[in-house]
Amino acid sequence: MRRPEVSPWASLVFEVMSHQTPIPRVRPIWEQWMQRWPTPADLADASPSQVLVAWDRLGYPSRALRLRECAEAIRRRPGGEVPADIDELLTLPGIGPYTASALAAFQFEQRVPVLDTNVRRVLHRVFLGERSAPSGQPSTGEVAHATRLLPEDRRESSQWNLHLMEFGALVCTQRRPACNRCPLRARCRWARAGFPGQVAPLRTQAWAGTDRQARGKVMAVLRARHATEGTAGLSRTEALEAATLPGADPAQAQRVLEALDADGLVRVDPGTGAVTFP
Description:
The chain folds into three domains: 100 residues, Orthogonal Bundle (Endonuclease III, domain 1); 76 residues, Endonuclease Iii, domain 2, CATH 1.10.1670; 66 residues, Orthogonal Bundle (Arc Repressor Mutant, subunit A), CATH 1.10.10. Helix content is 54%, strand content 1%. The chain is built from 14 helices and two strands; from the N terminus they run ααααααααααααααββ. Strands 1-2 form a two-stranded antiparallel sheet. Strand 1 and strand 2 form a beta hairpin. The longest helix has 19 residues.
């Protein structure tokens, strides 16, 4: 997917889908989307409910709605094409600094660093001797340092970004880095300093019983209903039942439905309480 022969639109969709979602989960959904909506204009013509159903279980479904808004914005542009300029990419709905730089580097072969979590971790360990990068967006200093490391050739620069991302994902991992087989160990300031700040493997984020789990249940039930009965949606009772988790706070179900409505992921009828996709 991160290849010049893939269309800019297909690359944009892939980068948005793969943010915080493993690529093996993304690939089949991305392929379905590209068959169904091969251009921004095609997705812009789809309804929000169609887009949310097609998003399936990728997680963070608000990304699906932002992609549709992005498609509408691109269709309004002269020529209806994905822009190559980073500043113009950043004006599109749902496109942040990482996605814009990834498109510029992998799709348009521009000499820009792609600073995802894996790349930032590698750079902080090897060059700064720190276990991990700070949370939040990369600093101006990080971007400048990463830019200085890029090869001058644009195509080589694109490959450098890709290899560094893979290195961070497969070797210089967050929890169990494979330092014994790392080709950069002799140069790694973190390794030479004795791995300061190394801690036990991180605990996985809680899922059971959370509002996020309840939201996922409601969306899954709505998708199933949509597949069998079109846009019928759920009655208030059915929606509350879908949002209710074993042993959960009784107020959680209503809170979850209100939050989904506020986020634009569902529509709650103010009179009947029925829940449908927007």
